[in-house]
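New to this. Please check this fold:
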Amino acid sequence: MKRYIFTSLALMAALGTSSPANDFYPLAVGHTWMYEGIRIDSLGPIPGTEYTLVRDIPGTEMISGQTWFVQMDSSDTSGVYSLDTSYVRTVGDTVKYLVPLEISDTTEVVFREADIAILPGAVGQTWEVLRLDTFFVDMGDTVEVSFRWSGEQLPPETVTVPAGTFNNARHILTTDSIITSFGFFNFVTVIISEAWVAQNVGVVLSTSPGHGSFVFFVNGYIEELTNYNLPVEPSSLPQRPETFELAPPYPNPFNPRTTASYTLNAPGHVRLKIYDPAGEEITTLVDGWKPAGSYQAGFDGLGLAAGVYLLRMEAGGYSHTQKLVLLK
């Protein structure tokens, strides 16, 4: 049985950014948006869950024969930092997201396009965002999951957020129905998200209430635009790596921790593992799909005997091994 790992579509419903061909989604390399957010539950905002989100477009990627803008969302919640990468482009009035579906048993990544929004569109217009039928998830037992994700444009509104007041902001409502089948039981989770999109700016406000699933309750959020910069000077933009590379770990020799640095010049599945000199696997540092970029992974040798170990990376047909020396 194959095990399918897929990106949570609900997290994408906050919408993305924009493109040169669409005034409501002015996508360009170097564009940056900043938001202040807070988690919410059925009682309203949850104190202590405030966070800052920075959304930027550092470059483009060629995937499945199409050029996509790379959208990076970095957030900081009470000192906990996270980074999410997605892909977006516009085709006329349609804003498209690229959804990676990773088949972990084969490391194959299948991409599906989702029509996140129709802009400027018309009031009352509806569309199918994405439909995925019968994905199997290994949670000890086989669980079948399917998605029915739809969008609707509501009447435009005037929205006031810290970044200013925006008139005639397009109001997008998305509904994601997740149908989970477990044996003879079927569970339906409905996730509703709303976004307000201003011309020549992008998303100025997005919100989603909390929702329950067949396993747990997921809090919602409110995110308000605080600042934006369109565009940034090209000289300040990060550069895409030119090659796959596994750099020598640092420090080396080490006791008991060291850091492995690696770069990817194209998105793909990455494996980073530690072996002993006999070729026996000690631990896995990385095993999953990643976009192009530079990364680090830490290794803690606490509990291991002093000696020589091997750090091996496999990605996109590239493989390389570095020697580690653990001191005690």
